[in-house]
Design goal:
heterodimer; A: five-stranded mixed beta sheet; globular; B: alpha/beta; 9 strands
């Protein structure tokens, strides 16, 4: 057992997947000699060579486009886009080819590949480095969308994403990259994609979050139990698409109340989808309207005010208390 | 050559018989600055460059001829079917038969072909049956199943978006140290797409075994080449990316074979990508939803009728006593019968199976799609479809 940061855990998963399967290769800007700007790919060039760790030209659209071609050829590329804000330049190839080529070829060419990108705010970055656009990819048929929240599930979900026969968008909460360490097993661990986790059982209200928001969510849950006597059940979504409707419905059927938290903009965000599903499948159990605590429908603010924009434990506590007031 | 004089060669004069000099840089032994212009047959089918004649035996020459005639007659039949409401929107390849057949002729079956949507004749050459292509263009799922015999990528409707994918396949070949090459084609309109330039760059950086064929056919829907490109010698783009390039008369099938054989050999030998600019003309419509009379003059089309790739090759074959008028008539009749038989098979196979729409999105249906499929089947049942 070792205590790893998320960056180290992701590096471990990449190394393990590459050692286990010679079809797995890594590509992206600065992923080789430099080991990536966050060092997620550190040391992999030395271990696996330049045929499997490709430093690419600076062109996001073609990093994804050529990765799709390599997947057509039977390789398993893990393409890194340096920041989620830059995935917009790859939107074309993600939508036209990564998400569609299996369907267009009637499954002759399955696209088994991963697009990794650090996402989200909270690290005082410049413009276009803090976006949370997972809702775009969840809206695109053919993709899977996965967001880990800590070192251990990051390692296990990345391994699963690389092994997956379908294209996976793997968003890494960079605010968590080095925020804390977690015990990560010596043995390779793989988690099933499409499963949410009840990380804290409770009876009064269900609190749903994912990625970097799991930290304020858990903080709020502690606060609510200790200060307000509200027994909160916390769910880590982990997989945006496919979405584990069953776990969400079971929890809300039990608690009757729910608050959903994400840092991406509110309009057509992941919370909207979760609330729609709970309306469809758990309406008769609901004791209060479901609330959402999200980013605003604005461009991610410059970093002097970002901490006021991001949902924090305080705003989550307020939302839960409002939900509890319904009788 | 200055960009200005390059412009003057656009659309009316397909190829100048003099080299286009852009720069004097060189990589390895290839003079990157020199965009050579290739033509084997002139517009009357006379040999103008015997050194580049591929030296094919008569039966191969006839096979080539049949390939071009097949391309044209199939195209004409599809257009008739479309006008009768039996076929969806498609992009006719009329007039580009030499470009189409000439680029796939030098390929091995194990090589990868990544066509644009205007490559129907080349697809038939690569092993697609006509009835399957009819199914595809009539909007049936079965039509999209790539034949097992063809290492081929599906075309993409978004202009140029297939080119980085083709480059990625070539990068995969390079990583795996395999012997195959990728041939991909796109039009002059696609040459304006950023992603096509990116794909050139990736291929050059990785020395990926890929041949880019730009079918410069004069028009991107209603936009003429002069409004598409500042330098209408599109082969010249190879220079900027470190890719050797050649410009070829795309209506001369032997010229195409000479150029593409050289390009494919170059890529296969590990020396990296090659760019072939095939100067040709889109004789017909952009797609069946287009009316070119709105934007181009009849005289221009007439000029190009005189450069017909099939008539030109016929003259050549006649001059070599490989073909005579009787044989031409016979071959045309045989191929027309082949096309009609394919149309009849297509009519039998054309049965819509709506329940399939969910089945190729993922390897396995996720729970949410299982639910949606059940909902859809229920809807079909209500409507009496199933």
């Amino acid at each position: 057992m070792s205590q790893l940061t998320m960056v180290e855990a992701l590096n471990l998963a990449l190394g393990e997947s590459m050692a286990a399967d010679d079809r797995v290769c890594i590509m992206g800007e600065d992923v080789g000699v430099n080991g990536g700007v966050f060092r997620v790919t550190k040391g992999l060039l030395e271990r696996f060579g330049a045929d499997r760790v490709l430093d690419t030209p600076l062109a996001e659209d073609s990093i994804i486009g050529t990765a799709v071609g390599m997947a057509v050829y039977g390789l398993k590329p893990v393409a890194e886009i340096q920041f989620s804000g830059f995935t917009m330049q790859a939107f074309d190839q993600i939508e036209q080819n990564m998400a569609r080529l299996r369907n267009r070829s009637r499954s002759r060419y399955p696209i088994s590949m991963v697009m990794r990108a650090p996402y989200g705010g909270g690290i005082r970055a410049v413009e276009h480095h803090s976006e949370s656009r997972e809702a775009y990819w969840a809206h695109t048929p053919g993709l899977k969308v996965v967001i880990p929240s800590g070192p251990r599930n990051a390692r296990a979900l990345l391994a699963a994403s690389i092994a997956d026969p379908d294209p996976v968008v793997f968003y890494e909460p960079k605010a968590v990259y080095r925020a804390f360490r977690e015990e990560v097993s010596e043995e390779p661990e793989v988690m099933e994609i499409g499963k949410a986790q009840v990380v804290r059982p409770g009876a009064d209200v269900t609190l749903i979050g994912y990625g970097a928001m799991m930290r304020p969510v858990l903080e709020a849950a502690d606060d609510l139990v200790e200060e307000h006597g509200i027994d909160v059940e916390v769910i880590d979504l982990l997989s945006i698409k496919p979405m584990d409707t069953q776990t969400l419905v079971e929890s809300v059927s039990k608690t009757g109340r729910c608050v959903v938290v994400h840092e991406g903009p509110r309009m057509c965000g992941v919370a909207a989808e979760i609330i729609a599903r709970l309306n469809e499948h758990a309406f008769e159990y609901l004791l209060a309207p479901i609330k959402r605590v999200t980013g605003f429908d604005i461009h991610f603010p410059y970093f002097q005010v970002e901490k006021h924009y991001l949902p924090d434990s305080d705003s989550i506590v307020v939302a839960v208390k409002e939900t509890m007031q319904w009788t | 050559m200055s960009p200005r004089s390059a412009n003057s060669t656009a659309s009316t004069a397909p190829v100048e018989n003099r080299p286009v000099r852009v720069d004097s840089n060189s990589v390895e032994t290839i003079d990157l600055g020199r965009v050579e212009v290739i033509r084997v047959l002139d517009e009357k089918g006379r040999v103008v460059d015997a050194a580049l004649e591929p030296g094919l035996p008569d039966d191969e020459l006839l096979r080539l001829y049949r390939g071009m005639v097949r391309s044209r007659r199939f195209d004409q039949r599809m257009l008739a079917m479309q006008r009768q409401g039996e076929m969806g929107t498609f992009a006719p390849g009329l007039g580009q038969e030499a470009t189409q057949i000439g680029q796939v002729y030098p390929m091995r079956p194990t090589d990868w072909y990544s066509p644009s949507y205007r490559s129907i004749g080349a697809q038939v050459w690569r092993g697609w049956t006509m009835e399957q292509l009819l199914l595809l263009w009539a909007g049936y799922f079965e039509g999209f199943a790539i034949p097992e015999v063809a290492n081929e990528l599906p075309f993409s409707i978004v202009i140029g978006s297939h080119v980085p994918v083709a480059t990625g396949v070539a990068m995969g070949i390079k990583v795996r140290k395999d012997d195959a090459v990728v041939v991909t084609n796109f039009g002059d309109g696609a040459s304006s797409q950023g992603v096509v330039a990116e794909a050139f760059n990736f291929a050059a950086v990785y020395k990926a075994p890929i041949v880019f064929i730009v079918e410069s056919n004069g028009w991107a829907i209603s936009t003429p080449l002069e409004k598409q490109a500042g330098n209408t010698v599109l082969a010249a783009r190879g220079v900027g990316f470190g890719i050797p390039a050649v410009r070829v008369d795309g209506n001369d099938v032997l010229g195409m074979i000479a150029a593409c054989t050289r390009a494919i050999d170059h890529a296969r030998s590990g020396r990296g990508p090659y760019l072939v600019e095939a100067v040709t003309y889109r004789m017909s419509l952009h797609t069946t939803a287009d009316d070119p009379k709105v934007y181009r003059k009849d005289e221009e089309v007439k000029t190009w009728e005189g450069k017909c790739p099939i008539l030109r090759f016929e003259s050549y074959l006649k001059s070599r006593d490989v073909l005579d008028d009787d044989a031409i008539a016979r071959i045309n009749e045989e191929i027309e019968a082949e096309v009609i038989a394919a149309r009849d098979r297509f009519r039998e196979l054309a049965v819509a199976r709506p329940e399939e729409i969910f089945d190729f999105v993922y390897e396995q249906l996720p729970a949410e799609l299982r639910e949606q499929k059940a909902e859809y089947l229920e809807r079909l049942k209500r409507k009496g479809v199933q």
